[in-house]
């Protein structure tokens, strides 16, 4: 079996799943995709929000106070949202005709990616993100960092939605526009 780990920062769309699976359409072995999706750390998110709201005292607005129950509720909501996004991503691969599983990770995504590739004996990694121009320019994005750690090919793809061919063809007299 040819194993591919797909590290994503947002749910995989049907279009992206088709694009990724098309990369392996002529693989000699059955291909299995394992989606790795980081979950936001609820405590960090809440702390950052509270930190930004602390400035509200200077600006004269009401302060925000959260107790342990509120923090736990926020953490659970974030975890649930991540699990739903993972299920949506796996479903996109399944609908594209692929075998897929996945997991949500709360640890550093590259640490988990490194251990996952070793555990699964993965043949390659696909990293699907939004554009991060500054990080890519400085070579501190996930893909550059993964390439330095891993001894398997790492492909970086930019996430996108399915193109609206109808509007493109109507604007160009019935012909699809060039990519």
β content, as a range?
Answer: 15-25%
Structural class: alpha/beta
* Portion in helices: 40-55%
How many strands?
5
Count of DSSP-assigned helices: 7
Order of helices and strands: EHEHHEHEHHEH
The CATH H-level homologous superfamily: HUPs
**Low-pLDDT residue intervals, each spanning 5 or more residues:** none
CATH topology name: Rossmann fold
Please tell me the CATH architecture by its name.
3-Layer(aba) Sandwich
Main beta sheet? 5 strands, parallel
Assigned CATH class: Alpha Beta
Can you describe this structure?
The protein has helices at residues 14-22, 42-59, 68-95, 109-120, 133-137, 142-149, 165-171, and strands at 2-8, 31-38, 99-105, 124-129, 154-158. The chain is of the alpha/beta class. The chain has a single domain (2-171), classed as Rossmann fold (3-Layer(aba) Sandwich). A 5-stranded parallel sheet has the order 3-2-1-4-5, sandwiched between helices. Strand 1 (2-8), helix 1 and strand 2 form a beta-alpha-beta unit. The longest helix has 28 residues, at 68-95.
Give the key terms.
18% strand, five-stranded parallel β-sheet, 7 helices, Rossmann fold, 179 residues, alpha/beta
Quick summary:
This protein is an alpha/beta fold. It is built from seven helices and five strands. The protein has one domain: Rossmann fold.
List the helices and strands and how they pair.
Elements: E1 2-8, H1 14-22, E2 31-38, H2 42-59, H3 68-95, E3 99-105, H4 109-120, E4 124-129, H5 133-137, H6 142-149, E5 154-158, H7 165-171
Parallel strand pairs: 1-2, 1-4, 2-3, 4-5
């Amino acid at each position: 079996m040819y194993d591919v780990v797909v590290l994503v920062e947002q749910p995989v769309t049907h279009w992206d799943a088709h694009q990724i699976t098309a990369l392996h359409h002529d693989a000699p072995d059955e291909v299995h995709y394992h989606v790795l999706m980081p979950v936001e750390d609820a405590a960090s998110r809440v702390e950052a929000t509270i930190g930004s709201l602390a400035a509200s005292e200077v600006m004269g607005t009401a302060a925000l106070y959260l107790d342990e129950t509120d923090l736990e509720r926020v953490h659970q909501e974030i975890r649930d949202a991540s699990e739903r996004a993972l299920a949506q991503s796996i479903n996109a691969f399944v609908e594209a005709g692929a075998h897929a599983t996945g997991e949500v990770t709360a640890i550093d995504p590259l640490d988990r990616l490194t251990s996952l590739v070793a555990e699964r004996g993965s043949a390659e990694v696909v990293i699907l993100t939004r554009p991060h121009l500054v990080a890519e320019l400085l070579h501190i994005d996930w893909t550059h960092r993964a390439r330095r750690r891993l001894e398997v090919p790492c492909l970086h793809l930019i996430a996108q939605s399915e193109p609206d061919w109808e509007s493109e063809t109507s604007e160009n007299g019935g012909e699809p526009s060039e990519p």
